[in-house]
Amino acid sequence: DKGVLVEQGMVGEIFANPKTALAKAFIRSTFHVNLPDEFTQKLSSTPTSSPVIKFEFTGNSVDKPLFSKASKEFGVEFNILTSQMDYVGGVKFGFTIAQIIGNPNDIKLAQDFLTEHQVGLEVIGYVA
After folding, report:
1. Domains within the chain, CATH numbers bracketed
2. Parallel, antiparallel, or unpaired for β 50-57 and 77-88?
3. pLDDT at position 29, please?
4. Contacts of 82 (CB under 8 A, 6+ apart)
5. Among 13-27, 42-56, 62-76, which range has the highest average pLDDT?
6. Is 3 exposed, middle or buried (0-12, 13-18, 19+ CB in 10 A)?
7. What is the pTM of this model?
């Protein structure tokens, strides 16, 4: 950033565990994970329905069946809309955009579970 070193380390480690906002933004920019146009048109910013979430998987969270575990444990369903995984420096990481379907309390519990397992979450919007 303006000629200043913002992170230092092995490439795989930086991609798996970025510590600065700039490094996180750079990693996101290397992926082109977007919702299909027909689904984007259905999005609302009002949290009255199922959330559509961009999930960021890095490090240990990549190879675990976390959606399956959350679905079984909290009774929610994941509608995967798009996903991209890749390897950098020998480390697998990637993004998945999915809708979580279920009652609001169970959805919140599933989100908390995923966060506890080092999955990044960003709510993109909501769909009925």
Report:
1. 32-127 (3.30.70.260)
2. unpaired
3. 67
4. 33, 34, 35, 36, 96, 97
5. 62-76
6. exposed
7. 0.77
Measure the N-to-C terminal CA separation of the chain; round to a whole number of Å: 41
The whole-angstrom separation of Cα 52 and Cα 24 is: 20
Radius of gyration of the chain (CA): 16
Q: pLDDT by residue (tens digit) across 78-116? A: 999 999 888 777 777 788 999 999 999 999 999 999 999
Please give, one letter per residue, the 3-state secondary structure of 43-63: CECCCCCEEEEEEEECHHHCC
Residue written as token pair 């379907």: 101
Q: Give the pLDDT confidence score for residue 71 in this predicted structure.
A: 98
Phi-psi region of 4 (alpha: psi -120 to 50; beta: other; left: phi over 0): beta
Q: Cα-flanking dihedrals φ and ψ of residue 94, to 5°? A: 175, -175
- Beta strands per DSSP E along 10-117: 50-57, 77-88, 91-101
What are the residues facing 80 on neighbouring strands?
98
Single-letter amino acid code for the residue at 5: L
